[in-house]
Amino acid sequence: MAAPMELSCWGGDWGLPSLHPESLTVMAYAKFSGAPLTVNTINNSWRAPKGDLPVLVSEDIVISQPAKILNFLRKQKYNADYDLSAKQGADTLAYIALLEEKLLPALLHTFWIEADNYCSVTKPWFASKIAFPLSLYLPGKMSREALNRILLTRGGPPLYSLTEVEAQIYRDAKECLNLLSKRLGTSQFFFGDTPTTLDAFVFGFLAPIYKVCFPRVQLQEHLKQLSNLCRFCDDILTCYFRLTVSGHSPAGQDTADANLQKLTQLVNKESNLIEKMDDNLRKSPQHPPRKLTTLKLAAGGEESSPMSRLSP
Amino acid sequence: ATLCFQAFLQMCNLPVRVICRANAEYMSPSGKLPFIHVGNQVVSELGPIVQFVKAKGHSLSDGLDEVQKAEMKAYMELVNNMLLTAELYLQWCDDVTVEEITHPRYGSPYPWPLNRILSYQKQWEVRRKMKAIGWAGKTLEQVLEDVDQCCHALSQRLGTQPYFFNKQPTELDALVFGHLFTILTTQLITDELSEKVKNYSNLTAFCRRIEQQYFEGHDKDSSTVAARSSKRSLLR
Question: Which CDD domains does this entry report, sorted A to Z (chain B) (predicted)?
Fold first, then answer.
């Protein structure tokens, strides 16, 4: 039937199958539409990521951008939008444009430009997934591209200054989150009970903001106040990525297990120490006369031992 | 794009006068055109202008509920994202159009060699932006296809209603009108772009309706002058 399809994308952490919004969008769409994709996450191998990820390879066809990949999947009859009316299809396009214009700049900023976040989380994580020496170069390149994109689309000539734009993009992003929350309301997905392309895009953009632990988290805090969006992300993760999460337990659960092990070891060590101290204390009755008596002598006890004590 | 603002202000029943200035970009507080000059305040860009007008007591979207407002904003972003970028692409990245139409037009207020220098600078700026958002690799056909998709979406959303949100015009109507009218009336090398829009009869009817309703108060001359000035200020 359909040729085997392979998706190369960035891997995940913090309970997510991928940290990269576009990779996550494609993975989510594949799950929703039931497309059989083999997912290859980039790990520390010499097959350097060429060009932009995610990349879909099917027989000889190589497709790189999420919109094009989704189009290709639809042509292969993996269509998650089958039940949508034409108007809903139009709404999908509009909301995706909203996400790209309003939310993406702030997402890029949080990941790649905010100094604390970039240096302590993003750069080490991405660098660990790529082979040396590309790991020295590629994160920097991605950061520069993100900065470029933000400045050119949001900064106005002639100043192209980041500080002016920062406040504006976060305001826009928070407004966008509010709008999405209002649109979602209490339904499970954006168009009823089955997830569609729009859900894939929203999930792809929101989940990294929601789950990744950054030092500077103003966007995450705002998102956490919108409980229906958080519930939306969690639902998709548990329903559609459950298998991947347990398959990917090396990423998520093993670290939890490892942490638990470490904790138990620490606790054991502590309890061993405490036992030793107890033992010492129990054994130490042989010694206390020296110490205790000095104290007692201070209060007026035997005189002989302190004399012998004090004499060199 | 000036046309969007004129339409918007007309819909709010606010009188407006259009002035063309060569240094308009520098007069604007944010460097973007168009901007409005009211009393001693200067406001630029659609978002702030809408808010400014709202603060003065005129608003077109009061009758919408929250979900509809969200939809309206989403569609406005779609129009900005697709139509505006496509217009910019066509003016500045399509070599034929650039040579024959854009360079002469953009540089016309200035003497040589300033006209060439400024228009090359502008072109370089626009191409940088296209590269950053990933449109640099697109061919003309792909751009036209995107425009088609956008028009299709707008056409679906409009359906048979007079305005996008049924009875009352909103900012979205003004924005869509501005862009579509410009596309339909601007003379380019090829008519492909306007053909794409003409495929959707409800969109052309929509444009005609708004033009008749809101612009026929002015003379035909002033509306065409406004259209030409909008082209000049569209070259930003």
Answer: GST_C_Metaxin2 (cd03211)
Structurally, how many domains does chain B consist of?
1
- Best CA proximity match to B139, nearest among B79, B81, B86: B86
Is residue B227 one of the residues assigned to a domain?
Answer: yes
- Its CATH architecture, for the domain A5-241, is Up-down Bundle (1.20)
**Nearest Cβ partner for A97 among B32, B74, B159:** B74
Residue A58: phi, psi to the nearest 5?
-135, 115
Interface membership of A187 toward B (CB under 8 Å): no
Measured distance CA(B106)–CA(B108) in Å, rounded: 6
- Residue B209 in contact with partner chain A when CB distance is under 8 A: no
Whether B116 and B103 have beta carbons less than 8 Å apart is answered as yes
- A100-113 tens-digit pLDDT: 888 888 888 888 88
User: Which one-letter DSSP state was computed for residue B217?
Assistant: T
* pLDDT tens by residue, A193-204: 888 889 999 999
Closest Cα in chain A, distance from residue B210 (Å): 22
Non-local (6+) Cβ contacts of A20 within 8 A are A9, A10, A53, A54, A208
Q: Which residues of B touch A156 (CB under 8 A)?
A: 30-32
User: Cα distance from B216 to chain A (closest Cα, Å)?
Assistant: 31
Does the model's pTM come out above 0.80? no
| CATH number of residue B89's parent domain | 1.20.1050.10
Residues in chain B: 236
Domain assignment of residue B82, yes or no? yes
Query: What is the structure's pLDDT at B122?
Result: 82
For residues A286, A287, A292, A293, the Cα torsion angle rounded to the nearest 10 degrees is 90
Which of B46, B133, B135, B165 is the best mutation test for A, with the most CBs of A within 10 A? B133
From chain B, the residues in CB contact with A90 under 8 A are 152-154, 156-157
